[in-house]
Amino acid sequence: MKALQPGDHVALIAPARAVSKDEMSAFRQWCADKALILQEGKNLYGKNHQFSGTAEERAQDLREAWTNPEIKAIFCARGGYGSVQLLDHLQNLDWTANPKWLVGFSDITTLHLHLNNLGIPSIHGPMAIHWGIQHEFTEENIAQLERLLFNLSVEINTSNSLISDELKFNGELIGGNLSLVYASLGTPEQPNTDGKVLFLEDLDEYLYHIDRMLVALKRAGVLKNPSALLIGGMTDMKDNAIPFGKSAKEIILEHADNHQYPVIFDFPAGHTQKNACFMTGAYCTFEDGILKQQL
């Protein structure tokens, strides 16, 4: 996997929910500013109910971008739901023949898990739609992604995070959205977390759903032997009229209990305004509150 350079071709596809051309305008301008030659998927602006096209059409956009030797990186337009529908339409695709960077998070976790299990690193980073959503950290998030793409270097400061143990740790960094990691159980995308750094985040879930997913991950062995557990934004958690009785942090600590690895809460990534970029399926180190990656 190589760093991007000015003049490289990149692709923009919508593996899940539909987007409009206006919503992609800020991302198109960024590509022009960085001298990247943008190729848009045929179904990028398609519409099939909430999706940008049928599963077959969305899979074809991914297939064409992945097999095109000119394309050096693929950016995902937005998440929502739908990426998991593509995999059965791509069973005969040789992912290892022409690897490239895939950029996205949330629903794109399914694709990250698939690639990482094949030994192909990918990038947890903003969707193209986020270039046009302005807030305090928009420019910082994009600048960090630029450093990653053009220098293959990552440094994430966790000074504002809650760290259960100050141990140093290292290992391959994997994971993503908790709901999608949970959905991978029993499938070829289920991650092997032994000795690896597991990242989890989620959005708009009931606390009892969080508990159910973590119970399943624990019973499947996913929480047994990671070298560390990174918990990103657990954003907009919901509760029932009769409270569940525990916060998301308390639920996570309960299911990680008795395991000899550090847990970092409030890692600055996920469905939060500050959404740090990093490589999944790539080695990382953690020391003195700084997570680092370098290819």
Folded structure, characterized:
The chain is an alpha/beta fold and 295 residues long. It folds into two domains: 9-151, Rossmann fold (3-Layer(aba) Sandwich), CATH 3.40.50.10740; 155-294, LD-carboxypeptidase A C-terminal domain-like (Glucose Oxidase, domain 1), CATH 3.50.30. 25% of the residues lie in helices and 24% in strands. It is built from seven helices and 14 strands. The chain has helices spanning 25-33, 55-67, 109-117, 138-151, 178-183, 207-219, 248-256, and strands at 9-13, 37-40, 71-76, 101-104, 122-124, 153-157, 162-163, 169-177, 197-203, 228-235, 263-265, 278-280, 282-287, 290-294. An eight-stranded mixed sheet has the order 6-14-13-8-9-10-11-7. A six-stranded mixed sheet has the order 2-1-3-4-5-12, with helices on both faces. Helix 6 runs parallel beside helix 7 (248-256). It is globular. The mean pLDDT is 96.
